[in-house]
């Protein structure tokens, strides 16, 4: 390939890289930052309460189902991974969003 063509392509690529639009980070609208933090805090609290209640419910089902109700005990045991999966999803939510949006 001709060196002048390569040099022209490099100059064009450099010009395009310089002219790329800016990508600023997210900025909350005035007055909504505190409201957004409050809503996210409430959702985290609800996640914790539901996680504890879900694991307790699985334990209750396993305890009750121990005697002559093995299907109930199995249902309680099979619910544990779902509760832990939901808690894990809530735990990594902020990290996943930050990674996807390159923040």
In DSSP terms (H or I, runs of 4 or more residues), the helix count works out at 4
What is the average per-residue confidence, as pLDDT, rounded to a whole number?
86
- Count of individual beta strands: 0
- Termini separation comes to 40 Å
Structural class: mainly alpha
Q: Please indicate the percent range of residues in DSSP E strands (runs of 2 or more).
A: under 5%
Helix content bin: over 70%
Rg estimate, integer Å = 26 Å
Q: What coarse outline follows from CA principal-axis ratios?
A: elongated
Biggest sheet layout = none
Order of helices and strands: HHHH
Oligomer: single chain
Stretches with pLDDT under 50, minimum 5 residues:
none
Task: Describe the 3D structure.
The chain is mainly alpha-helical and 103 residues long. The protein is 76% helix and 0% strand. The two termini are 40 Å apart.
Keywords, please?
mainly alpha; single chain; elongated; 103 residues; 76% helix; 4 helices
SSE inventory with pairings:
Layout: H1 3-18, H2 33-64, H3 70-91, H4 93-100
Helix pairs in contact: 2-3
Quick structural overview:
The protein is mostly helical and 103 residues long.
